[in-house]
């Protein structure tokens, strides 16, 4: 099967180098990529739903919502890395057309966690969660 892949890709004449063997050994198959995407996306959705349920807990609810919502967004972003690969995902995120949205989204992720843990401002954490949503939709 490897011989067929090399012939179809035009690498038949050359012997694979050590780096090419490492890259081939560490790349995930399509089925594994889809399973990783589904698992990571499900964890992201579960965290977001759990955060929404914890919103109604007195005193700590808003902070818990902000933390779980942010973790859900991080897991959702990580899930798409399974489909595209991390480098392609990062290259697309930092294209000129998406650069501002990416910076705003990453900044809001960090500021949400800062406002929840260090500054202990629940209203500010909620504001950054809303900004996360708009940046992700943008």
From TrEMBL:
Its subcellular locations are: Membrane
Transcription regulation recorded as keyword: no
Q: Name one GO cellular component term.
A: endomembrane system
Which keywords does this chain's UniProt record carry? Membrane, Protein transport, Transmembrane, Transmembrane helix, Transport
User: Do you know which Pfam families this protein is assigned to?
Assistant: Got1
Membrane topology label = Multi-pass membrane protein
Which regions span the lipid bilayer?
36-57, 63-87, 99-119
UniProt-listed InterPro entries:
Vesicle_transpt_Got1/SFT2 (IPR007305), Vesicle_transpt_SFT2 (IPR011691)
Role: May be involved in fusion of retrograde transport vesicles derived from an endocytic compartment with the Golgi complex.
Family as reported in the entry's similarity comment: Belongs to the SFT2 family.
Q: What is this protein called?
A: Vesicle transport protein
Q: Which organism is it from?
A: Promerops cafer (Cape sugarbird)
